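Why do we care about 3D structure at all? Because function follows from shape, and shape follows, mostly, from sequence. That is the central idea of this module. The next example makes it concrete: a single protein chain, its amino acid sequence, and then its structure expressed as C-alpha cells.
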Amino acid sequence: MARTNNHNDHDTRNLQENLQQVVHLLSKHRLVEGFVKMQETPRYELVNSLVHKQNLAELQNLLDKLHPADIAYILEALPLKERLMIWDLVKADRDGEILLETSDSVRETLIAAMNSGELVAATGQLDADEIADLAPDLPRNVLNDLFQTLPTEEREQLRSAMSYPEDAVGALMDFDMVTIRKEVTLEVVLRYLRRLEELPDQTDQLFVVDRDERLMGVLPVNLLLVNNPDTKVSAMMSTKMVKLHPDDKAQQATHVFERYNLITAPVVDMNDKLLGRVTVNAAMDFNREKSENKALNLAGLSEEEDLFAPVWKSVKNRWVWLAINLITAFIASRVIGAFEGSIEKLVALAALMPIIAGIGGNSGNQTITMIVRAIALGQLNASKANKLFAKEIVVSAVNGIICGSAAGLFAFLIYHSISLSVVVTMAMALNLLLAALLGVLIPLTLHKLGRDPAKGSSVIITAITDSGGFFIFLGLATILLL
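And the structure:
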C-alpha cells in the first residue's frame, strides 16, 4: 500500500512539474516576443520568426512526451488564450485521445476551435465506443460526416453505443474484445493471438462463443498460458461468470466490479448474444464522474464548470440555486423579524441563534449524504424507508440531547440563566429532529420524482434548518422566557 501511495505522489509531482514547465515556457515566449517587438530594426520580422519557432518547438517537444491525460490536465489549468495555443501545438493524431480525457466544459472550448475536417480526422481514429463518448459534444454535421467515413461494422457499433442513455451499461460498453470457440485447442488459440497486433486493453479473459455469437463461457488468460496446449478450450473455460445487460444501470455495474474485483465483464442481450464488454477503466471513470457530479449537485451547481469559462456562462451555472438561497434567506429574515420584540428584551437570543441553525444544517447534511449514498448503491427501497426514517429520528434525538445539553451548559455559563439553558437544549433537540425528517424526505422525494437526489439537497436542507431553527428557538424563548 505504501508503495502505491509513493507512486501516486511521484505521479502528482511529475504532473505539477510538467504544468509549471509549460507555464514557464509560455511566460518566456510572451516575454521574448514582447522584447523583440520593441526593437525597431529591419530584421525584426526575421528575429521574431526565429524566436517564435524556437519557443514553440520547445513547447511541442515537451507535449510530445506527455500522456494524453496529462495534456488534458494542463489544458484545463490554463486560461482560454493559452489553452488554445497549447492545443494548436498538439499533434493532430493525438487530438481524439486528448478530447476523451478532458472535462466536458473544457472539451467544448477545444471543439469550438476546430473546423469540421479536423474534428472528423480526430474522432475517426477512435473506437466506436470512444466516439460515442464524444458524440454529445460534436456538431451534427461532423457526426454525419463521421458516419460516412466509418466501416459498416464500426458504424453499427457506434449507432448501438449512442442508442443507450449515459447511465446505462450500454454506454460504457467496449467492442474491442477477443472471442474464441470451445471446440478448439489452447494451441490454436495461442496461434490466433500471435497473429494480432496487440491484445485489447485489460484483456484478462477471452470470451467463448458459439456460431451464433452466444456467450458460452470465459477462458482466463492465465489458464491459457500455463496449461497443456493440446487441451481443448471446453475443458478449461469457466461457465460461472458475471454477465451484464446493456440496459442495466451503470452505477449497479460499477458496484459489481468492486464486489468481485473484476477487470472485464461481458455484456449480453436477452438471448445471451455477446454484444461487448465493460472494463474496469470504464467503471472507474464512470464512478469518478458520478462522484464529481454529485459534489457539484450538492452545492447547487448544474454542471461542471471550466475554471476559465466566460463570466456570463459561470453566472448562468450558479444563479439558480443562489436565487433560491436568496429567497430562503429572506424567509429566514422574516422569521427573525417576527420575533424582534423578543430579541430586544433578551439580546442573548441573537447571539445563540446561529448555533441552533448551524448544528441543524450540519446534521441534515450528514443524513442527506447517507441517504444519497444508499440510493446510489441500490441499498434503499420503499420497504426499508420506514426503518431508516425511525433510525435517523433516534440518532438525531440522541445527538440533539447531547449537543443541546452542551449548548445549554454553554448558555448557562455565559448568561447564568437556567431557563435560557433549557430553551437552548430543547431548541437544539427539536431542530436536529427537523433536520433528520427533512434529510430523509428530501432525497427520497427527489428520487421518486425521477430527479437526482443529490441535486440541491444541501442547499434546501440548510435553508429549512436555518428558518426552522430560528422559529423553534425564538418561539420557545418567547413562550418560556418572556
